[in-house]
Amino acid sequence: MSRPILIAHRGASGARPEHTLAAYELAARSGADYLEPDLVATADGHLVARHENEISGTTDIADRPEFADRRTTKVFGDHRVTGWFTEDLTLEELRTLRCRERLPALRPGNTAYDGQFTVPTLAEILDLRARLSVELGRDLGVYVETKFPTYFRAIALPLEEPLMVALEDAGLNRPGAPVFLQSFELGNLVALRQELGARVPLIFLAERTGAPFDLVSAGDPRTYVDLLTPEGLADLAQAVDGVGPDKDLVVGRRPDGGLGEPTSLVGDAHSAGLQVHPWTFRQENEFLPTDLRGPDGTGDVVTEIRAHLAAGVDGFFTDHTDLGVQARAGAL
After folding, report:
1. Collapsing DSSP states into helix, strand and coil, what is residue 94?
2. CA 4 to CA 214: how far, in whole Å?
3. pLDDT at 93
4. CB-CB contact of 95 with 119 (8 Å)
């Protein structure tokens, strides 16, 4: 690639409620290369964009008495979650809800848009991509994450098959298409390539700690850290095209919490033939190294992004498309 790609994390989610068509459109118009929808399923098998399948924090469902009886508690591995879940609502029911800002204390300006937008479907996002590609005169991409694929398959609502149908229908399952598919689980990426014929790049996402849910469920002892060693990366390269690590795995933090030095991850991944797309760059202080924090609750994310670009990353996820554009322009 001629320059690192800018991935609009859940759209321009620093300026609009995340995973709304408004957030995606603003990101595209601000200069994003890729729009990033996270996909979960409804009760009737439609794919919609939410960061979590539990939606009380991003919609007004808790204020809707007609859905009071849908509140429930579910167990995901070691976690118990209480709330309302997309898989317990049909698409028609879900579309009666309105989106809200997920981080109102950190992004109070975004709350002005609460109640204005519906939860978008994958089909709507792909239609928006096509329309804006024509209008903006550039091939806008989508960078799709399948959320909790093992869980959704276990409840007979698999994400992968309808995703591949949607990409085929949009003419996007082909080499060179502006598409990446990503997951924190490894097995569904392997299935997408080997069983479902995905011909677009696959990205394995990695946390700083813990292990992929599908590997834990299968009794595989490998952790994210194991998979990011040179040996682990060489194994990953047999199945995927890149890794999406937590940004602190690329440029570490000093003991005092300040921005540290690059690790060996980018070089190790490149040696294995893998791209590196770290996540997620945000300007709010709590997400920044201590030495980049500002007095008003936000700080210098541009410097943080540039440090990662200097480390050689091939792309990056950010909530702030405009600042990502600024950071990339100054680093070229």
Report:
1. helix
2. 30
3. 98
4. yes
Burial degree of 221 (CB within 10 A; 0-12, 13-18, 19+): exposed
| Residue 70 phi, psi dihedral angles, 5° rounding | -85, -10
| Dist CA 217 CA 214 (whole Å) | 5
Q: How wide is the angle at C-alpha 35 spanned by C-alphas 157 and 63, nearest 5°?
A: 60
pLDDT by residue (tens digit) across 185-223?
999 999 999 999 999 999 999 999 999 999 999 999 999
Q: Does residue 245 sit in helix, strand or coil?
A: strand
Backbone phi, psi, residue 264, to 5° = -85, 0
What is the DSSP secondary-structure string of 141-210?
EEEEEE-SHHHHHHTT--SHHHHHHHHHHTT-SSTT-SEEEEES-SHHHHHHHHTS---S-EEEEE-SSS
- Residue 126: both structure tokens together: 């792909």
Query: What is the CATH architecture of 5-52+113-331?
Result: Alpha-Beta Barrel (3.20)
The confidence band for 316, taking pLDDT boundaries of 50, 70 and 90, is very high
Query: What are 54-103's pLDDT values in tens digits?
Result: 999 999 999 999 999 999 999 987 789 999 999 999 999 999 999 999 99
What amino acid is encoded at 267 in this protein? G
> Could you tell me the CA-to-CA distances from 97 to 84, 104, 224, 283 in Å, in that order?
12, 18, 36, 29
Strands 72-76 and 79-83: antiparallel
Tokens coding 74: 């579910």
Local structure of 101: helix, strand or coil: coil
Would you list the domain boundaries of the chain? 5-52+113-331
Query: What is the DSSP secondary structure assignment for residue 273, as one 8-state letter?
Result: T
Task: Name the maximum alpha-carbon separation found in the chain.
Answer: 55
Under 8 Å CB-to-CB from 19, ≥6 apart: which residues?
10, 11, 13, 37, 38, 49, 50, 51, 58, 99, 119, 120
10 Å Cβ neighbour count for 250? 24
- With 0.70 as the threshold, say if the pTM is over it: yes
